[in-house]
Structures are given as structure tokens and as C-alpha cells.
Amino acid sequence: MSHETIISGGTVIDGTGAESKKADIAIDNGRISRIGDLTGVNAGQTIDATNKIVTPGFVDLHTHLDAQIGWEPEMRPSSYHGVTTALIGNCGVTFAPVGDGPKARYLAELMEAVEDIAADAIMDGLPWNWNSYGEYLDTIQSLKPTLNVVGLAGHSAIRFEAMGDKSCDKGVQADDKELQRIVDLVRESVSEGAVGFSTSRFLGHRVPDGRLTPGTWADERETTAIQQAVVDAGGRGGLFQVAPDMAERFKVERAMFEKGAELGCQVLFSGGTGPDGDGGVANWSEFLQRNNEAGNRITGICHTRPSGSFFGLAQQAFLKTPAWMELMKLPKIADRVESMRNPAIREKLISEAKENGGFGGVEKILHPLGTAQYPDFDLAKKRSLAQIADAAGKDPVEVYVERLLESEGKELWNLWAFGGNLQNQWNYMRLPYVVPMLGDAGAHVGQFTDADSPTFLLSELTRKHNVYSLEEAVHRITGKSAEVIGLKERGHIREGWFADINVIDYENLTSCHPEYVNDFPHNGGRLVVKAEGYDATLVAGKVIIQKGEYTGNRPGEVIRDFQRG
């Protein structure tokens, strides 16, 4: 007997959390046809996985690739890092359903304001040939994505369609007619293939005029009606995704999670830990354990590393004095470096920044990624800007300028705004109902590049710091993530299931330095982070990336049918 493809000699980590084992894998017609010893069995293609690990493809539960698919169907922010299925439409920001004309522009500008993706790129990079959510999914499939795509219907588009401009006004709630329209659109979107519904209540998400996004102020009457509509249309386990307001409405948000779960939703919320005490870990442990043991499905998703934003000379310099703002108007990084070499300009940059308070204490949580072959994430906490400046006996502004010049403007500084207390964050990540995968792939393209979350998880946190066993780490971002969104026959390496698979050189797996490139429509710029160590990534049995290079295969499927109940 011959097979289309055999992956031979690898250590299989099947995505269930079970102990790894040596085995060969045969693939036919896009599915895993046989697992075992296939010595001497013929195949049209053989992938040698000797001394490599073989895992299911990763499931990325938090992306904003909704726009980027239009001009980059490879979905590189995720596919560079072993992802084979991406959930789009998070945080309530989506492009469907949409009415004609100005409404499309509004949604594009909202995406720009919230997720840092240029509205002009969005308008020109997508065909905008849809009205309903189902038609939008049809368009995504027609673009022939490289990865599998799962879509969420977003609160911003639906509420704006139902209520118009007042949908963003604090204190304004939907009247009976408007609420019925919202519910009807949710039911329609889920029945047409959305996995569920997403909303943002995060107080940092704003529309272009400065108001908060349409779903921010929705009351319990509206959110409960939406949750019921998700279950009515999609069945028990339909997804309700939330970027919550934990700053001012902690109890309200948790009550909303519980209500949705009681109605039958799978609730997925973005969260993390604070710097003080245990960072809320014990509280979240009790909450998640109590609800899930009672049959109420609530899952947290979190960052894998200290995160916030990158600063340097790419797009954000952090310092906002007139001299710095003038510097950042120059079109290219090389131009900015050349300008900084002028002693008079350099002195003005430094003096203005000092007079304006410098970094205002933020130097304590700014950490350089370094300039060696691979980034240094400084998990030992020994290389903050404050520590480097103290050791050199210099002002942090002076050190910042010196290092930008020494690196030709390539060095980036990572602001540890989230997850800076590593032990708290790691303890939170270990909770049974938490998925470490909040990378925001496709969003904040000039600000940070956490889309390498799975690579960082496996290389830094698993291989170096033992936050998880390798089997558990793989389980969290494959089988467990697939279960959260109800994927059928994906997330495990199992005979008969889809052949979404990674072959990984685990000992050499690493993220590369972020690079700033101008490859978006209208020559727009973004940060890109690649990886080393992914020997091959397969979607439905087709190799999409081999040794970091794309093969041209685009076998991705827009998934509309989910495991419910």
C-alpha cells in the first residue's frame, strides 16, 4: 500500500496532553490515514522528522487578520508560527454585516482606530462585495486562504447597523426595535457560519472621534439577548468572546460571563494578572473552577510574555517632544538615524526629552530585545532601560539615543505593560481553563508582534523555564483551543482527522527579531516576526511552509460547522 505523504521518524505529541511517542504518520486525501511503524511503506512524499517533534497545527484564538487576508492570504503573522487555524473577528471589530457605502468606510476606520490597520489599506485591500455575514465568509473563502479560518460576528458592526451613530454614546441603550434588529443580525450571522459573537468593553478601544466602540456600553438586557441568540442559532457551546473592562466593571463583567455560560455559551475572555500579591490568580482559579465544574464553559486567554508595545525608530519613539515628533516624520528608519547623527539634532532630542520628564518612570519597564542573532526577552529582569542607565551612570534618555544609533535604528524596546510579574502570569497560565495565545496577529502592526506566541511558549516558557511540560503546552494551543471553538476533527493527531500538522526542530525553535517592512497597500509599514525551527507546516495534508518558506499551497477552509452540545 502506498500513501500520499508519510511523516517518518518523529516524536508525536498528539494534542491530548498524553505522553509523546515515536511514530510515523501517513496522510491521504487531506486526513491522517495511519499512525504507527510505517517502515518500508511507500509514499509520494516523505517528510523526515527524525529528532523532531510532530504536533497538531496550532489554533490561534485571538487574531485580527480580517483585513490582511485580502492582500496576504498566507496570513503570515500566524502561519510563520505553526498556526493552521485562525479565529478572526475578535474584540467586536469585524467587517460584516455591513450596509452600503459609508458604513463600510466606518468599519474600516474603526478597525484603524482600534487595531492600528490603515483604513485606506482595508478599503482597497478587500473587495467589499458582501452585506451579510455569510456573504463575507464566502468572500474570505474565495480569497483562498492558506490557513483555516473561523469567524466571529462583531458587536461594533451589528450595533452600528442597528442603531447608527448613537451606538457609541455612553448611556444610550437600544430600544425594543433596535434590540430586535441586533438579535436578528446575531442569529442570522451565526446561522450563516459565524462560530459566535465578539464584543469589546475595554476602555482603551475607541472610534476615530474618541468615543468608545459601539458595544462598550451595552447593558445586561442587550448582552443577555445576544448570548441567547448565539445559543438559539448555533447550539450549546456557541462562542461569546469578550475583551472586558476589568478596570471599572469587574463584577459586572464576571456576572456577564456567568450569565452567558448559564445560557449555554462558551465564553472566552481576554485577561491576565496584576503586579501585586498573587495578581488575582487565586480568585480566577476559584471562579473558573467553580463555573466549569458546574458545566458552565468559561475560558481565559492571556499573553505568553510581558507585552504592551515596542518602541524605537520604526513607528513609535515613545518620546513625544517637538524634536522627536519632527524626527519621526522622516519617511524611513535610515533617514531618522542619519538625522540623529547630527550632533545639534541629537542634543536637542536629548535635552527636550529631559526637560519634559524623560520616560517618566517607564524606563523601569522598558526592556531591549538586543541586537544579537535572536531577541533577548530579558525574562531574568536584568536589562531594563533603568538598570542599563544606572550601570552606565547616564540618564535613560542618553542611553536610549545611544543604543538606537549603535543599532542603526533596528533595536526595539519592549514595554512590559502586561504580565510584568512573571511568576503571577505563569501561575495564571497554568490554571486548567486558561489558553496562552493572546497574540493579536494582524493587529497593532506598527506597535508590537506578539503573534509569535506559540513559538515563544514552546521555546522560552517550555524548553527554558518549564512553565509547562511540552505535552501540556502543545495541548493548550491545539486540542484545548480546538475544543473551545468546537472544531471538528482538528486539534489532535488521530487517524481519520484532518492532517493539520507541524514538524518542529524543537531544540532549535526560536522567534527571530522583529523587522519593520513596508508591504501593506499604499506602502504601509508593519512589524514582522519570523521563526526558525518549523521544518514543515501542513494544512489538510498540504505543506504550506517548509523551512520558513511558503510553498504556494493555499488549502485553507472557512469553517462553518462546529461541534456543539
Spans of at least 5 consecutive residues whose pLDDT stays below 50 are: none
- Rg, Å, rounded: 24 Å
CATH class of the largest domain: Alpha Beta
Main sheet overview: 9 strands, mixed
N- to C-terminal distance: 39 Å
How many β-strands, per DSSP?
24
CATH domain fold name of the largest domain: TIM Barrel
Determine the structural class based on helices, strands and strand pairing: alpha/beta
Proportion of strand residues = 15-25%
CATH architecture designation of the largest domain: Alpha-Beta Barrel
Mean pLDDT: 95
The amount of helix comes to 25-40%
* Discrete helix count: 18
Fourth-tier CATH superfamily name of the largest domain = Metal-dependent hydrolases
Domains, number: 3
How would you sum up the global shape?
A: globular
Describe the secondary-structure layout:
Blueprint: E1 2-12, E2 21-28, E3 31-36, E4 42-48, E5 53-56, E6 58-60, H1 76-79, E7 83-88, H2 102-115, H3 119-125, H4 133-142, E8 148-154, H5 155-163, H6 176-191, E9 196-200, H7 220-234, E10 239-243, H8 250-263, E11 266-270, H9 281-293, E12 298-302, E13 307-311, H10 322-328, H11 333-340, H12 343-355, E14 366-368, H13 385-392, H14 396-406, E15 413-418, H15 422-429, E16 434-436, H16 453-464, H17 470-477, H18 479-485, E17 501-504, E18 510-511, E19 515-520, E20 524-528, E21 531-532, E22 534-539, E23 542-546, E24 549-550
Parallel strand pairs: 1-4, 1-5, 6-7, 7-8, 8-9, 9-10, 10-11, 11-12, 12-16
Antiparallel strand pairs: 1-2, 2-3, 5-17, 13-15, 14-15, 17-22, 18-21, 19-20, 22-23, 23-24
Helix pairs in contact: 2-3, 5-6, 6-7, 7-8, 13-14, 16-17, 17-18
